[in-house]
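Q: Here's a chain of 481 amino acids. Please give me its 3D structure as C-alpha cells.
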Amino acid sequence: MDGDTNSNHSTPLLTNKDEKSPVTFCTKLWEENKMVWQIAGPSILTSIFQYSMAFVTQTLIGHIGTLELAAAGLQNLVVSGISFGIMLGMGSAVETLCGQAYGAGKLRMLGIYLQRSWLILLGTSVLLTLIPIFATPLLLLFGQNRDIAELAGTYSIWMIPEMYMFALNFPMQRFLQAQSKVGVMAWISLGVLVIHLPLSWFCITRWGLVGAAVSLNFSWVLVVILQFAYIASPSCKDTWSGFSWLAFSDLLGFLKLSLASAVMLCLEYWIYMVLIVFAGLLKNAEIKVDAASICMNIEGWIFMVPLGFIAAVSVRVSNELGAGNAAAAKFSVWVTVSIALVTQTAFVLLILFTRNSFPKLFTDDKAVMKEVSTLALYLCVSIFLGSIQPVLSGMAVGAGWQGAVAYVNIASYYLIGLPIGIFMGFKLDWGLEGLWIGILVGIGLQTVILLIMAWRTDWDNEIELSKERISDAAGPDEEDK
C-alpha cells in the first residue's frame, strides 16, 4: 500500500513533442499503468475499509431485531446518504484545486485549499443538521412505517457527529490524494476498522442502537484525528504550514466550485436511491425492494474499485494540467479507462456465471432469488458502464468541469433516463426491470456525452484555465511563490 510517491514532479511520461515509436509507446503505457495503480490500489482499499465500518455495524444491529435493522438501514440509506453525497461532492473541489496546484508547484496553496474546504463543509453541516433533527416527520411524509420512522429518526440524531466527521474527512482525503499520499489513508482506515470490529460488537451488545452510534461515531473521529496528525507531521511540511487567514479569502469562488461538485456527484449518487423508492411502489413491493437492495449491495461493493480509478485519474489529470503537460493528461484518461474496462469486465463475467447461485448468499426466499437472477443482466450492464463513466467523472473533477457535468447529469438521469424508467416500469408494466432500463439509458447517455467531451477537449486550453483557476484562488503573496 505504498502510494506516497512524488512521481508527478518527475519527467512527464508523454509530452506534445514525444515521438510515437512502438517501443516508446509501450514503455509509457507501462509507466502510466504503474502510476495509476499506485494511486488506485490504496484508494480502493481505503474505500473498502471505510465502507466496511458501516457494513459491520449494520450487520451486528441485525442481531438485535428486525425493527432496529430496518431503522438503521433507513438512516444509512436516506438520512446519512443525503449528507454523505453532499459532503463527498463538495469535497471534490479540493481534488481539483489541490491537484492542479500540486502539479504547478504551488505547494503551500494545498493547505489553504484544505482549510477553505473545511470552512465551507462545516458551515454546510450546520444547515444539514436539520435533516436528522426532522428525520422522523420527513420519513413519515415519504410513507414509511411509523415505528421504523420514529426509531430511524432517533438513531439519526445520535449519528449527527458522523456528518461533521465527513466534513473534515473528505477534504483531507482529497488533500492527500492530490500528493499521491494514498498509502497512509489505507493503513489508517485498516487500523481503525480493526479497532471498530470489537468496539462495535461491545457497544451494540450492551446499548443497542445507541451503542451502534457511539462506536461508529468514535471510529470516524479516530480516522479524522489520525489523518490530521499525519498532515500536521513533517511528512506534509511542504503542503501544510499551519492555519492561515488566507483560508478566509476567495470563499465565494471556492463555494461555487464546491456546489457545482456537490450537484454533479449527488445527481449520480442519488439516482439509485430514487430507484429503491420507486421499487417500493411496484406490485409485490417487498420482493422488488429486497431484490433491488441485494443488487445495490453487490454494486456498492464492486464500486469500491471504480472509486480507486476515479481518484487515480483525477489526481493524474489535475497534476499534469497543473504542470502544463496536456498530452500526459489525455494519455492518462485513456489508460485508466482501459484498465477499468478490464477489471469491471471480470466482475461482469463472474456475476453472469453465478447469477443463479449468488442470490443464495443474501436470502432464502425463492421468489427474491428468482427476481435477483432476472436482474443480474441489468446489474452486469450497470457494472460494465461503471468501468467507463466513473473514470470520465474523475477526469471531469481533475479538469474542473463540475459545473458542465452537473448539467449533463440533470439531462441524462432526471430529464431522460428517469422518465423512461417510470414509463417502462409503470405504464408498460415492466416493473423493476423497466425502472432499471431507464437508469441504464441515463448512465449510457451520460457516458457517451463525457466521451465526446474528452475526445474533443483542447487540453492545451485546459492548461491555461488551470493557471487562471490557481491564480484566482491564490492570495497576492502566494502568486509570486
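Q: Can you summarize the key feature?
A: The chain has two domains: 41-248, 250-475.
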